[in-house]
Amino acid sequence: MAEIKSAFNASCRNCGLQKVCFPTGLVKSDIDRLDQVVDRKPPLKKNQYLFKSGEAFTSLFAIRAGVIKLYSFSEMGEEIIHGFYLPGDVLGVDALASKEHKLNAVAIDNVSVCALPFDQLTDLSLQIPSLNQQIMMVMSKEVNEGRSHSEMLIKRNADQRVAQFIWSMAERYRVRGYVCDEFRLNILHRDVAVHLGLTPETVSRILAKLHSENIVTWKKKEVKIYNEEALRIAAGGVCEEVEGFA
């Protein structure tokens, strides 16, 4: 079973997530300079917050291990889950304009993050053009994720949403170099339902159907994909949209 290994003390240059985090495309000397501004936070335990709505924005956060849930509440007090962030993902981009976090970021298992103080990061990016490009890419990725999720809710039926969610998570593990057909996923089915605009009962029914068709099982936080092609077809038969969820 593929588990994401922590690398709490690794430098940016030695971190195994270089290909999916900021250092992508940077030369060794640039990575070393970035490493000097990184603040490695103490690990978060399950249900601890990385930041809460209303807190001042000071840093971007790169996840090194674990999973973060990003959510807010509607005017009616209903929870809105904006996404689940894996190692290599960067959080906090949405607060750049207002300089205040509008969303809540909570650990759903043990999490390790690197804080990137934005003022120092901005100064460094002026000296390293490739780093500035990386920051722009992170911002673009955040916009594309929101667009892709909105399109999924409009264009996909319930069965396709659940299948596409599992497919996208598998692809995200694959990009990070982990086994992508059998992995641990600590996300509650209830949270998946909220994220996909479905009821927990509907998600359970669809998962049971996927299991009965020998396509995929997701039980006790363990996901096992038996037929990748059938899962892709169940998700709507498209692969290109998956990157919007990565």
How many domains? The number is: 2
Q: What do we call the CATH homologous superfamily of the largest domain?
A: Jelly Rolls
Number of helices: 7
Coarse structural class: alpha+beta
Residues in helix, %: 25-40%
- Radius of gyration, in Å, reads 18 Å
**In total, how many beta strands?**
11
The ordered H/E elements are HEEEEEEEEHHHEHHEEH
| CATH architecture assignment of the largest domain | Sandwich
Q: What are the key terms here?
A:
alpha+beta, Jelly Rolls, Arc Repressor Mutant, subunit A, 2 domains, 4-stranded antiparallel β-sheet, 7 helices, 20% strand, disordered N terminus
In brief, what are we looking at here?
With 246 residues, the protein is α+β, with helices and mostly antiparallel strands.
Q: Which helices and strands occur, and which strands form pairs?
A:
Elements (H helix, E strand, L loop, with lengths): L27 H10 L1 E2 L8 E3 L7 E7 L2 E6 L5 E7 L4 E2 L12 E4 L4 E6 H10 L1 H27 L2 H18 L6 E3 L4 H8 L3 H13 L3 E4 L2 E4 L2 H7 L12
Antiparallel strand pairs: 1-8, 2-7, 3-6, 3-8, 4-5, 4-7, 9-11, 10-11
Could you characterize what this model shows?
The N terminus and C terminus are likely disordered. The protein has seven helices and eleven strands. Helix 5 crosses helix 6. It has two domains: 124 residues, Jelly Rolls, CATH 2.60.120; 90 residues, Arc Repressor Mutant, subunit A (Orthogonal Bundle), CATH 1.10.10. The two termini are 21 Å apart. The strands form three sheets. A four-stranded antiparallel β-sheet has the order 1-8-3-6. Strands 2-7-4-5 form a four-stranded antiparallel β-sheet. 35% of the residues are buried. The protein is α+β, with helices and mostly antiparallel strands and 246 residues long.
